[in-house]
Amino acid sequence: MTTTQTYFAYGILYVSFLLLFLLFVRGVEGSKTSKYGFFTTGSKRTVQVILLSLVLVAAFSLVILEPGFVFGFSRLPSLGLLGFGFFLFTSPLVATSQEAVFRGYILKKIASSTTLSIGLLVSSLLFALQMTNPFVLGTLGTGGIVQYLFSNTLTSFALGITMGLYFFKSGWSLLGPVIVRWGLLLEQNLSPIVANSNGWELTFVFQLIGCAVLIILMNTTIREPRLLAKKYLDLQIGPKRWRFLQRARRRAEAKRTLRIFAILGIIVVAGIVGFQALAAGSIHLTAIPTGSMRPTIYPGSLVIVQKVNNPDQIQVGNIIEFSPSWFNGSVVHRVVAEESTPGGLLYTTKGDNNTSPDPLPTSFSKVTGKVTLIIPYIGFFVLSPPLDVVLVAVLFIASLLSSSLKNPKPRIGPRGPV
Q1: pLDDT, tens digit, 9 for 90 and up, residues 256-277
Q2: Do 159 and 211 touch, CB atoms closer than 8 A?
Q3: Is 80 part of any domain?
Q4: Which of 78, 185, 256, 382 has the smallest number of CB atoms closer than 10 Å to its CB?
Q5: Do β-strands 331-341 and 73-75 pair in parallel, antiparallel, or remain unpaired?
Q6: Is residue 134 reached through a cis peptide bond, with omega within 30 degrees of 0 on the bond before it?
Q7: Is residue 409 one of the residues assigned to a domain?
């Protein structure tokens, strides 16, 4: 499709989202839209929500621009009059339709019949899936899919959790979430500068940090109405006692989370050290960065290489690791032929996905070992160390978010209808 057709298609998509919301609320249920977030809370409260929403947009924008102060900034090419006008006038439509469907209808419905935690998780998952383009995934390789899922799907899920909490804490009003989403869309599509970074992993981490900063600002600024806390968090306690228990619970959950990560770190380090000690140099791990051995070994796979002590341990058809003279580094290819020479055995090697053998034969002295086990995808964490930081950040923030959604214990006060 042309650029104009693409813009038009996206406009129709989000108009359809908004019409779907109105159809279910007004036509099928016969309810008022105010039940799902479209209402005003008074002029003073409205002004406060607008100001807080602008602060949240500014805070998120500053966080995601932070890498630029280290790696510099780049100026984006001009969108042109059509592109600028499209994003300027459709951003409020996109923000309203997405928040109405995923927060106003789905989150409110699920939270009303189950719990807030389930509503947040389900609505955010559906929001992330809606933001994921399956046609783009079909054109990407394994590495591209990983990058797309982290940079797009997981960040959308984190944003859905953030907007859901804002929706709840502001008394089920969509005014705040719509303004924040509107501002973030304008910043994303119309900002003339972008922060440089040394990889998509760092950009992804700062997106998560931005969501965490918004949650912290919301928690310190907004005290949700007491009836909301009672109904959706199942509390029967006074506001002072509630805040005391919240602080105590958060400290306990933070300590528990840190202990879990410390224990996992000790287990991983001990496992690696123990494996190397038991192997005693006879086994080592190698990550595969290229696709020359497809479909036997895909990029990002981790292979276990066993040391070989004599040529009899290598047969034609084996996959070996060697350090050839024609390449600066190690290569993992299959032995397709061997030849006896006065200087010893020479192995002709070839990648399964290559059309021709390697440039020169390899002698046994250049062979590091023989591949004995292939573990798909795990090698990405070896090939891309920033991805390890991404994984830790995801797990850590997810742990803190899940902790913030748990009900404090014990419950205090008599049980009764809300």
Answers
A1: 766 666 676 667 666 666 665 6
A2: yes
A3: yes
A4: 78
A5: unpaired
A6: no
A7: no
Q: What is the pLDDT of residues 310-330, one digit of tens each?
A: 888 899 999 999 999 888 888
If asked whether residues 13 and 98 sit together in one domain, one would say yes
Domain that holds residue 192: 3-230
User: How far lies 136's CA from each of 132, 144, 148, 314, 358, in Å?
Assistant: 8, 10, 9, 42, 34
CA distances to 4, 180, 237 from 79, in Å? 12, 23, 54
Sheet containing 367-375, strands listed edge to edge, beginning at the edge strand earlier in sequence: 283-287, 302-306, 367-375, 319-322, 331-341, 344-350, 362-363
Do both 218 and 289 map to the same domain?
Answer: no
Nearest by Cα to 187 from 71, 65, 66, 102:
65
In this prediction the pTM is: 0.62
**Type of residue found at 254:** A
Do residues 24 and 110 both lie within one domain? yes
Give the max Cα distance, the chain: 94
In the chain, how many domains are there? Answer: 2
Same domain? For 68 and 215 the reply is yes
Question: What percent of the chain is helix, strand and coil (3-state, nearest 5)?
Answer: 60, 10, 30
Strands 367-375 and 302-306: antiparallel
Question: Residue 227 CB: number of other CB atoms within 10 A?
Answer: 10
Clarify whether residues 221 and 360 are in a common domain. no
Length, in residues, of the chain: 418
Model pLDDT, residue 1:
52
The H-or-E segment that residue 129 falls in is helix 116-130
Crossing angle between the packed helical segments 155-169 and 116-130, to the nearest 10 degrees: 140
Residue 129 to residue 206: CA distance in whole angstroms? 21
**Phi/psi at 391 (5° precision):** -65, -45
Query: Does 15 fall in a domain?
Result: yes
351 found inside a domain:
yes
